[in-house]
Amino acid sequence: MLIKTLVENTSISKGFGSEHGLSLYIEAKKHKILFDVGASELFLQNAKKLDVNITNVDFLVISHGHYDHGGGLKTFLKENTKAEVFLHRFAFKQHYAIRSNDKLDFIGFDENLKQNKQIVLTSDRFFINNGIQVFSNIVQREPRPKSNSGLLTEHKGQTVDDTFAHEQNLVIEEDGMTLLVTGCTHNGIINILEYFHSVKGRMPNYVIGGFHLLSRSGENEDSDMIDRIGKYLMGTKAKFYTCHCTGIEPYKTLKATMGDNIDYLSAGSEITI
Hints:
Blueprint: E1 2-7, E2 23-27, E3 32-35, H1 42-49, E4 59-61, H2 67-70, H3 73-79, E5 84-88, E6 95-98, E7 104-106, E8 119-122, E9 125-129, E10 132-135, E11 151-155, E12 158-161, E13 169-174, E14 177-181, H4 189-200, E15 206-209, H5 223-236, E16 239-242, H6 248-258, E17 262-264, E18 270-272
Parallel strand pairs: 3-4, 4-5, 5-8, 14-15, 15-16, 16-17
Antiparallel strand pairs: 1-2, 1-18, 2-3, 6-7, 6-11, 9-10, 10-13, 11-12, 13-14
């Protein structure tokens, strides 16, 4: 399986643009999959530089209803008129973030895009194709990331703390190997892996995604929690690639614990698993 990072907060060189967002191109044996589309049309610009033809994408999976993962959706739908686009049924709800100046910013999607014929709304476990599925409905056994603070959603006319029911995770199984792809793990990477294990009876071989250990205000998750996460991830025996909302300093802490079992993906990077 070939994975190319189209959008991430950092880039491998000045030749690739970067932004606060995430987009991954995944080329499996039978299907070409895009996971998230970043905050803008940058995913398309970097795709061209990485020899990725967006019109050939079979499926787009958007992890959750925040602009930094779905802001490029309108651009994608203009470029690719055949791919099915899988979002959780709550992804188009109104989502907000409280900024440092106490301003309430809308961080959701253009609701008009929901009517596009390519959109497929999902919930819980949803099977996309043979060996490809998404899952949500995560049980909260461990605390969610502290950096979720200030992320809100609209419920029955009220603005309330987001429970991240709209967050879904991608699973690709191929040749006896399993890849789990997460967006921001707002529900907590440990909770997501525990849920995966409860469904599959095993851990994935590879995990790619952000772990949300850094807030937009620059506040890191508690060091004790990062250490605990690192030890837990080591116990899964999986290989991890992280990015985006994990944060560079939390990543360094995880790297010190996990060594070669974790690496960082920047825009422009290519890996084969």
